[in-house]
Write a structure and sequence with these properties.
Helix content is 27%, strand content 11%. It is built from six helices and four strands; from the N terminus they run ααβαβααββα. The protein has a four-stranded mixed sheet with strand order 1-3-4-2.
């Protein structure tokens, strides 16, 4: 049966409008069957990363290294095996439509759920900037995990050296971004050695906000002691001569 010209045009338009972050790779490998339980572990992504996916991965890695430099941590290297591991989980989350962490603790893991439209495209830095804001809740004098800061500490963990990133679109304009880290961070009792305070290149500023210039100190004038007047000589009172009364003088009574 031949398709009409109208149907052919409709199929062509829908193909052009398909999501850039396809749920299947070049060889047909996807995220595996959907399983909504904590024990589910999908096979690593075996497809081909699209140009758009690679672009987001680069954005994520560069943004990580931007913040790691502030905390005296070495830059992270990209790892294709970690990318595929993260991509498989991103596909899984996009299918079930919610955030859920892997049960496996082989690698460190951060997860971000965002929204996109024509005016707000998917950018890798959005997830990383959101995680870094947790610095405002972190106490650098403590040596244990602190509530609401696990993404920040994993980002800047000094012992971590490699990063993998996965990205997948879900329903209703959502997308899921997954990052995995090797070696994993957030190790009990190792926080003081792996999470440094911000150095002079950063600080507790809101991501993407320009830092306020430091006020120039106004020199304080040194107080000059008032001159002490020289002591004035005390004038000597003039001496008054006492009259001498001679013997036998008159004047007796």
């Amino acid at each position: 049966m031949k398709l009409s010209a109208t149907l052919l045009v409709a199929f062509s338009i829908s193909a052009l409008c398909a999501p850039v972050f396809s749920q299947k790779g070049g060889d047909g490998g996807g995220g595996g069957d959907v399983e909504d339980n904590e024990d589910y572990e999908p096979e690593d992504f075996k497809g081909v990363f699209t140009r758009s996916m690679r672009k987001v991965q680069r954005q994520v890695r560069r943004r990580h290294n931007h913040y790691r430099k502030r905390h005296n941590a070495e830059p992270l290297e990209s790892d294709d095996e970690l990318d595929r591991y993260a991509q498989a989980w991103a596909y899984h989350l996009a299918k079930i439509g919610k955030v859920m962490r892997r049960r496996s603790r082989t690698y460190g893991e951060n997860i971000y759920q965002g929204y996109y439209d024509t005016d707000h495209p998917i950018r890798g830095r959005d997830a990383v900037d959101t995680w870094y804001k947790e610095i405002n809740l972190y106490d650098f004098d403590k040596n244990h995990r602190q509530r609401g800061t696990r993404e920040f500490t994993q980002m800047v963990w000094k012992k971590t050296s490699a990063l993998g990133t996965g990205i997948a679109r879900g329903k209703n304009g959502t997308y899921f971004l997954v990052t995995v880290y090797d070696p994993r961070g957030n190790i009990r009792g190792k926080y003081l050695k792996n999470v440094d305070r911000p150095n002079e290149q950063g600080g507790r500023t809101h991501p993407q906000q320009p830092q306020q210039p430091r006020p120039v100190p106004v020199p304080v004038p040194v107080p000059v002691p008032a001159p002490v007047p020289a002591p004035q000589p005390v004038p000597t009172p003039p001496q008054t001569e006492i009259p001498t009364i001679g013997r036998g003088g008159g004047g007796g009574v």
